[in-house]
Specification:
The structure is a homodimer. Chain A is of the alpha+beta class. Helices cover about 25% and strands about 30% of the residues of chain A. In chain A, β6 and β7 form a beta hairpin. Chain A is globular. Chains A and B meet through α1, β1, α3, β3 and α4 of A and α1, β1, β3, α4 and β4 of B.
């Protein structure tokens, strides 16, 4: 129990460090908090061939090999395991190249960003940790005119699921998925379902 | 390698089974694919006190205990570890009660739903698997008038990150995070905007 509680604390610190690095616009800090190839050396990734293997049609169920070995699985696995990242409203980015490039892009277009994290939950099982939180974001772009200090500040309500892996260099991000909260849900009886 | 490939195949089958159960409106099938309390008995969850411990302000950095033991951690951990789920545009749902209730609600309001999965990626590390995919969703609500078979069909472009844990009863969902793809990102110069 004591060991597990320590893990939870460490994961929480790693999660906080991630958002603090984003607030500082610290690209190297953000990079260091993502798993790299060496960290994932024991992992195995399979990338489905486009439009194959991932179709949930009932027809596919009869053939458990569908989309596996037969459809480019070996080639795809050679790419190695990968981190993944979804920014609010974005498609999935996969691999350090795509993911880190996206942070460079976001930092280049963000003059100011602050995260107020609420609803934080950390769950650790073995060498993996799952963190969910609400990111109450206040951000501003570059100044629209010379002399202005900041672009207009914008508030955003975003929820995130962050998956961390234990490494010899601490807990590192394997996946970050953030999405806009667009409407209230039915998680409580008096809430309204989103349209 | 052979062992890992088998894991990847099993995870892909569990992922497909999840979407097929949703397509059939099979509530029990969906429930069976989520981790239950027994599966997560070895895990440890910490829920941050509201507005505490999750704030990424630099001030918090100086005190590593902030938000840990001192702020209701022991009480919160007593709730036990938990599954989590984010539907597109929704806040985070936590625990089997909230998560399964949301599926009952969605099924009650969905006459027809089909998932065409693309961009499937499976990555296995130890007893955890990470799946990312694009859910091309075609769905229809209840018939607006008597005699109509279905409500109007709606297409939706959604991306999902699904986290599975290995159990003695196969791979089970620990987390599902799905979000709408709202705009293009710039991850590849030659990509076309989804809008």
């Amino acid at each position: 129990m004591t060991h597990a509680r320590t893990d939870v604390e460490q994961v929480e610190l790693a999660n906080t460090a991630f958002y603090e690095a984003l607030e500082r616009g610290d690209f190297d800090g953000v990079s260091d908090l993502w798993l790299d190839a060496a960290d994932l050396a024991d992992a195995e990734t399979y990338t489905g061939a486009p439009d194959a293997g991932g179709d949930a049609d009932a027809d596919d169920e009869a053939d458990p090999d569908d989309g596996g070995e037969g459809q480019g699985g070996a080639d795809a696995a050679a790419e190695g395991p990968a981190i993944s990242c979804v920014h609010p409203g974005w498609p999935v980015l996969t691999g350090r190249g795509e993911v880190l490039r996206s942070y460079a892009l976001i930092m280049a277009n963000t003059e100011y960003i602050q995260f107020f994290l609420t609803d934080l939950r950390v769950s650790v099982a073995g060498d993996t940790a799952l963190v969910t939180c609400t990111e109450n974001i206040l951000s501003g772009g570059p100044a629209p005119q010379e002399g202005d200090e900041l672009g207009p500040l914008v508030g955003q309500l975003v929820v995130a699921t962050n998956v961390f892996r234990r490494t010899c260099d601490g807990w590192k991000l394997w996946s970050h998925h953030a999405s806009p909260v667009l409407a209230e849900t039915g998680d409580d009886e008096d809430d309204e379902p989103p349209a």
